Amino acid sequence: MSEVVRSIAALRELLLPIRHRGESIGLVPTMGALHRGHRRLLECAREENGIVVASIFVNPLQFDRPEDLESYPRTFETDLALCSETGVHFVFAPATAEMYPQAQLAWVDVPALGEYLCGQRRPGHFRGVSTVVMKLLQIVEPRRAYFGQKDAQQLVVIQRMVHDLNVPVTIVPVATVREDDGLALSSRNKHLNRQERQVATVLPRALNLAKELVDQGERRVDAIQAAARAVFERHPEVRLEYLSIADPETLVPVESIDRPVLIAAAVWVGSTRLIDNVTVSP
Ligand code: AMP
Q1: Sheet holding 238-246, edge to edge
Q2: Percentage of the chain exceeding pLDDT 70
Q3: Ligand 1, CB within 6 Å, residue ranges
Q4: Straight-line distance from the first to the last Cα atom of the chain, in angstroms, rounded to the nearest whole number
Q5: Model pTM score
């Protein structure tokens, strides 16, 4: 059974002797509503570390819409059962007041990477993510921290933050876990009704088509954009927010495909926003 820890001081006290013994600590930051995607991260952390800490914290700093924060799924009891099953040692689940006892005046930001893709539509989102992840890294001091490739931009922002600020942790990327029909698992999939759930597969299908075109030798960004956009146009119930073909490290849109690229998209299905991406090498 995982031990639930609510306070920063208590977690530090529990982890100190473990770190002194030289045991490696793996951290998996989450916002809860855990699914098989999170489970994969936890399993990777379990395989590679003596002790695993999962954090479950719905971070208000990264929500740009109050209604999204309010309706974010919260399923603590089943999350805890999944953590216990996966062999997580500590579940760090602080209250908001524990993480942010006062207005947050100090922030961590990687502005050049927050500008593109999701950052254009969600001002302040990545600054909120970087800030909470930095706090979690300071609290847990893990040897390794695990992040899903599903949130490609988040992963790039965190990798760059850790690199530029010399944070002594290894960031481990974990491949996206999908449903059988290709839809990437996401806590937000819970908001989809049956029809929306069916049509949501247009997102991985369009990204796969883009990947196939590159695999077949297409190098023109415009042609790939047009083909993928045509897939979305056949489904007016899905609103495409962006489709970007970008450098996987700088996230700057590329003009032609002569090296590996990140193809990333965000869509709205009803009132639910979904993101997904593939990395393609020519
Ligand atoms: P979240 O709880 O949505 O903040 O996600 C916590 C971590 O799980 C992040 O590093 C996500 O990238 C990762 N994650 C979410 N969905 C998936 C998925 N389908 N496959 C792999 N990792 C995922």
Answers
A1: 238-246, 261-269, 272-280
A2: 100
A3: 30-31, 37-38, 40-41, 147-148, 150-151, 174, 176-177, 184-187
A4: 46
A5: 0.97
